[in-house]
């Protein structure tokens, strides 16, 4: 929820409007939505709902109710042998000894033959397996099952708030509860929270901790991982646009890195440098996070190098990276059952992305390994590389917290260089490939771009034990944190066309100068251009004035309502008082579209290109849950900045595109 505004430039602000997608009035579907919410209430406690407790006691897993009957036997055998991760223990999807277990649990939920079986299985598991593992599995199953994927899920930062705020905030929440503090639904107890780099930054990287630790950004990244679990293949699971998951893996990380580099410019920080095998990591990270079981997440000390870790893992990393670089240099990839095959232009990025992540769709996971996940494991466990002291996983090993550590972006910079090497082998786009004959962008502009810090409240209730159901919503304790935001703005492009035609319009925002104030050539800056928007447009003959509102950008979504608000809305809908609106809150945070400005203004470049839509959009590409493919004209993601730009003059001379200098305040 939004509260009073703290502005950077003393400006008044209107918050982003959320465009509803679907109103639901069917009582059966509303009841299902209501029941889904109940699963997430105080997940670290036994359920407080009598009907759920009864289901948990009486429900029996029946193999006939699952697509693969052997799943029931496998789970039962593990459960009875006490081979499952105990409740209260830290969970990480990146730990190999927990991966088989969580896949089994996801499969039980996903392959339930009907919704009733799915839900009763979830209730049954809630009381029997590790609570963090349960939450992860339910998020994945709900987002992937055809009969649940439209349901609204509570924001991750309100399911596990302790992963999104520093431990002193959680401690104050506990103390408030123990003191018997009285709150009500309309009068919360507010605890002011901040970031690890504020009010006083310990390092240069701490200056941008408001970005890396933003709750909306980390929720977006968590949803991205819930939708694309690397251990599930696109053939047997309804992963949205799963046939392009490797390309989505690459492009989402590349865009996150580009956006982070723009944020760094506002403090004159240089762009992220790739992680080195030989040089120590200069900046440490103290996450200040305490898990629900009371254990602190470990610190990553400064000056740590890879060779101070498990040397076997380091050798694995080097071997995997050498094999991937060899595939790029030779233009040949080894398939597990088909031998060497050439990297074809239209599919190479997808193949390489799957190899980097080592998803289940990797063409030869055993040979190419998992460069990305092994890096996260090695540095996530850097405090205890030989597992002598049973140290809990670091922030890099949790999908809800990975972005908090600046080292994550150095890891991404290194692995993406492999795909960039492939892109650099490709011929630059010719003028014919960039041109839309008969179309000219005559003007490009943006409204005043103004950023500020706004206060944002989210509930800490799920971290606080309550003895009875009646007290769940009586305990109303919220963290109030300042978050970067911006004044709503519009982009304007005037396009003249000789013919009426269907077009695809792309807007980008990128750097004009580097951290030292030197103007950048386009080839040096192209990897840091962030795609703001992409949409179809029907050009008419003559002049076309295209206006796009920042609240309508396809990449972004507005703020998710609080868990409390969602829960109450469903209750009212079930009572017939108002319809429940299903909406999409899983995109990149609309508040972070612009990097932090300054009083003097942060100089950037705005770019637009209008291209023809020459083919019918691929019907197999889902517009849901995958912003990378909501609109497409068959060109590569990131077009036209995905290839070398050897000559600025020729690139700027394309009539259906235009650059314009803009300033962010």
Automatic annotation (TrEMBL):
Residues 1-16 form the signal peptide. It comes from the Eukaryota. Coiled coil: none annotated. InterPro entries: Di-copper_centre_dom_sf, Hemocyanin/hexamerin, Hemocyanin/hexamerin_mid_dom, Hemocyanin_C, Hemocyanin_C_sf, Hemocyanin_N, Hemocyanin_N_sf, Ig_E-set. GO terms for cellular component: extracellular space. Residues 155-418 form the Hemocyanin middle domain. Keywords: Signal, Storage protein. Residues 428-665 form the Hemocyanin C-terminal domain. This is Hexamerin-like protein 4. PROSITE patterns: HEMOCYANIN_2. Residues 30-149 form the Hemocyanin N-terminal domain. GO terms for molecular function: nutrient reservoir activity.
